[in-house]
Write a structure and sequence with these properties.
Rossmann fold, 4-stranded parallel sheet, about 230 residues, 2 domains, alpha/beta
Length: about 230
């Protein structure tokens, strides 16, 4: 089988917090394989520090369109690394290359790992937005529950407090709501996937890993229309 050595995937963090991008980049490391596509992670400088509201979601659509439009020739696939999948369908209109949203990919991955999935949200106010998305893609019936840790994106850097709350929420999703797989509902949680999975004893899906894994597959299989 011929190896693809020149292909590349651009992973875009739509918020402007560089620490989140570093966590995303670390999460992508297991997917950087010899002969596979290069994976580059970038921060959207025009984005808010965290995407925590519908207003934040909509504010990054135009900058995302501009960035992908400018760099469309340089990459073979794009990943929007925010759990709200901002601008996903709009970005798909400006390129024939694969465009993956991490929420959609995480949910689809979770459906292959268990019957009922739970989601760990950052804030309670994020949940209504996520539920609308689940309804739009037709998978609400497989959701066990979505519960918040009540920490903003910037607060996720406090590892001790964040991990303690994630474990508590993960256990509640498992024990009280019957989730047999958990999705982390923010790209800023990337560093906690394996420790969380070990702590709660059920599979945990990190959304950016799920999306980049799909992007790697599409690039390897040449699934685009360009």
């Amino acid at each position: 089988m011929e190896c693809i050595v020149s292909a590349s995937i651009l992973v875009i963090n739509p918020n402007s917090t560089a620490a989140v991008t570093r966590g995303i980049d670390d999460a992508c490391e297991p997917l950087r394989i010899p002969g596979g596509p290069a994976i580059e992670c970038v921060t959207l400088a025009d984005g808010p520090p965290g995407i925590e509201s519908q207003r934040d979601v909509e504010s990054v659509v135009a900058p995302l369109l501009r960035l992908v439009g400018e760099r469309e020739r340089d990459y073979d696939a794009f990943v929007i690394a925010c759990y709200s999948d901002p601008g996903l369908h709009a970005v798909r209109e400006v390129t024939k290359k694969p465009v993956l949203g991490i929420a959609e990919c995480a949910i689809l991955t979770a459906l292959t790992l268990g019957h009922r999935f739970g989601v760990i949200a950052i804030l309670r106010k994020s949940i209504a937005r996520h539920l609308r998305y689940l309804a739009a893609i037709g998978v609400s019936g497989r959701l066990a529950a979505e519960l918040p840790v009540e920490l903003g994106v910037s607060e996720l850097a406090d590892e001790g407090r964040t991990f303690k709350r994630m474990v508590a929420v993960g256990e509640k999703l498992r024990d009280d709501h019957g989730a047999d797989v958990v999705v982390m509902g923010c790209a800023g949680m990337a560093r906690y996937r394996k420790p969380l999975q070990d702590a709660i004893g059920i599979r945990v899906v990190e959304p950016t890993q799920a999306a980049v894994a799909m992007a790697v597959g599409r690039v390897r299989l040449d699934w685009h229309t360009g």
